[in-house]
Design goal:
single chain, 2 helices, about 110 residues, globular, Alpha-Beta Plaits, alpha+beta
Length: about 110
């Protein structure tokens, strides 16, 4: 499995408009893709006041290629969303197959 982390910096004056479209356009588009296992999105914090993130998990690299094309290591920006992007980054990681996380009470 592959984790794809998409980070995007958005000017503060466009946050409200971006959030509506990010959730309705970008997230909806990703959720429709074959090979997607999960997707989570995050909004700015005091530590990253202009940055949003989409973390998606994919079955394999072939699923990412089907979603993003041969340039799958680059951002996929749906039509109408480029105007919000000041800067963006995409990172990919393989998930450890044998790693099991168990949450315990303290």
């Amino acid at each position: 499995m592959i984790v794809r982390i998409f980070r995007v910096s958005v000017p503060q004056d466009l946050h409200e408009e971006f959030e509506t479209k990010f959730l309705s356009v970008s997230v909806t588009y990703v959720k429709q893709q074959i090979g997607l296992i999960s997707v989570e999105v995050g909004k700015p914090t005091i530590w990253q006041p202009d940055e949003y993130v989409m973390i998606s998990t994919w079955q394999d690299v072939q699923s990412l290629i089907a979603f993003a094309g041969q340039a799958w290591q680059q951002a996929v920006i749906p039509d109408g969303m480029a105007k919000y992007v000041r800067q963006c980054w995409v990172h990919h990681y393989e998930i450890f197959d044998h790693l099991v996380v168990v949450k315990t009470k303290i």
